[in-house]
Amino acid sequence: MSPNSIAHLGYLAVLFLLPHCLLRCSADVDFLYNGFQRSANLSLDGSASILRGGALQLTNDSDNLMGHAFFDSPVQAVRDDTVVSFSTAFVFDIVTVGRGGGHGLAFVIAASKVLPGASAGQYLGLLGKNNLGNSSNHVLAVEFDTVQANGLLNEANGNHVGVDLNSLVSNVSEPAAYFTDDGKNVTVTLESAQPIQAWVDYNGRTKVLNVTIAPVSVTSRPDRPLISHAIDLLPIFEQNMYVGFSAATGKLASSHYILAWSFRTDGAAQAIDLSRMPKLPKPPASPPSRSTVIKIVAVSCVVTLTTIVLAIVIALWLRRRAVLAETLEKWELDHPHRMPYIELYKATKGFKNSELLGAGGFGQVFKGVLRRSGDVVAIKRISNNGTQGMREFVAEVASLGRMRHRNLVELRGWCKRGEDLLLVYEFMPNGSLDAHLFHRAGEPRALLTWEQRVRILRGVASGLVYLHEEWEQLVVHRDVKASNVLLGADMGARLGDFGLARLYEHGADPATTRIVGTLGYMAPELTVTAKATTATDVFAYGALLLEVACGRRPIDPVTGANLLRCVRDHGVNGDLLRAVDSRLDGRYDKEEAKLVLWLGLMCSQSRPEARPSMRQVCQYLDGEVDMQEEAVLVFSGVDSFDFGPLASLTWSSCSCNTMSADSLLLGGR
Questions:
Q1: Marked catalytic residue, from 201, 479, 497, 581
Q2: How far from chain centre, in Å, is Cα 553?
Q3: 639 and 518 in one domain?
Q4: Distance (Å, whole) CA 546 – CA 571
Q5: Is residue 406 part of a domain?
Q6: Is residue 230 domain-resident?
Q7: For this structure, is 201 an active site residue?
Q8: Phi, psi of 630 (to 5 degrees)
Q9: What is the distance, to the nearest Å, from the Cα of residue 212 to the centroid of all Cα atoms in its chain?
């Protein structure tokens, strides 16, 4: 090709590319305002104005204002289906006089200088509740918000910076702050009445938006932005967009100012000369307006009314304290662990029905939370039916108050105030054994397994050994039954309710007393002697053994059937295991079940001297004693009964070597 041809082609290329270069160069925008003149290329509406000193005021401190200020010429935001990079820096100042301010200002890029549907207050003059989130809005806003709108707009707090797309629900929001060179986060108070500089940069290639702020007292721009958010603005931006600011007030108001502004597309915005920034006007000293006077009078009325209400509240509180006050009786000083009535009153929310766990002839039991320790407790409110109610209350305080055993319900404290008798126990989250054995249909309680039942029986036996032999005094419980066996979180057994308990010195003869107890658990000799002994507790425990193994009450409340007689009859017929709870569906240890049933019959014998002691019961359950010969001697001469199961029984000869088979099988008649 000749040199002339090459030159001709080069000339044509220049002619072809020149319009594109001119178009690209003309599309870029770059301006800087170190303060504003009335002749500035700005479009203002609403409450926005340029002050004489050169500050752009978006709102003053009046209520429910909106102010907008846009660069008058459009900016080419999309080029070749790609969002054009842009960079802006500006200095703003939010001044609040004498009250909480609101609501903030925003840097805005919008498809129009007119924002239809915009509202004041929390909407910052950008949008309204009717167009919030519409894709046709074509609005990007970086908000500098001084009010948190009840958590509805995804705001970090009441002093935050957020990025909004077509909505005031922020895509990202951070508490206003900047990062120092050593990475420390320093809070920036937006309405501090001090100038704050902000930088907003968007890279059209990487599609990352960075927002940085710092007080003007920070001489250089922080290296680390407050917000760095990846976002594609192509669906938001149209070909041409307008850049500017929006601010709004609500019931509370602030003056929002822009002091300087720099903007550029396809490059970094020019640095603002902070030394040339305009000064804000000083607020004029003027007499209060009529509205201010009205507000002052209203506040005074509110203060007066509040004072009156507060006085009434204090009077009611003092009256309530007087009602809840308590006077100690002399005997109460001799018993430790007394709790203030007001503490128990608050723990149960005033003995509210919603805290009621159960009720019966004894009174009511409430769930409570002790405020000092946070412990969950059960608070029993005993029915004070005269002398008897008081006697049972003192019995529990005197006995259980000093006892500590893993299988006894721990008494945490007590209180007596007038007619109110209160006992505070450790809370048993799994309720009573009775509720688990005989829960109503539809109640969410799992059937107790055989292993759980045996563990519960061993626990109750261990607790009774402690009462009968190991504590400083001999304690006869007198009311051993399934409803008084409570289950902890680990399903471990705790024997409770010592309202009928009697204390004796070891070796002393029990005194005659009135007959008390529960039908089916009461030993037959009580009807003759009326003396509660350790043997009567053993009889009740025998009834409990049969009840737990068979899943039936000692006396059926509907038919009146006697469980002891039923088990005895099965034993006579050589089919003892037929008595085991059918709900277990055969899932139990047969030898262990035989042992429990035979032991229940032994404990339930009619003659108290023929019953084993509770320590012997524990040894028997734990397999510690193996006296096969003695067991055979007990039942020698009885040929009509299959005593094969007794070959593996372990039993002490202490009181059994004189028992006959009849005395065992006829026990409890």
A1: 479
A2: 40
A3: yes
A4: 13
A5: yes
A6: yes
A7: no
A8: -65, -40
A9: 37
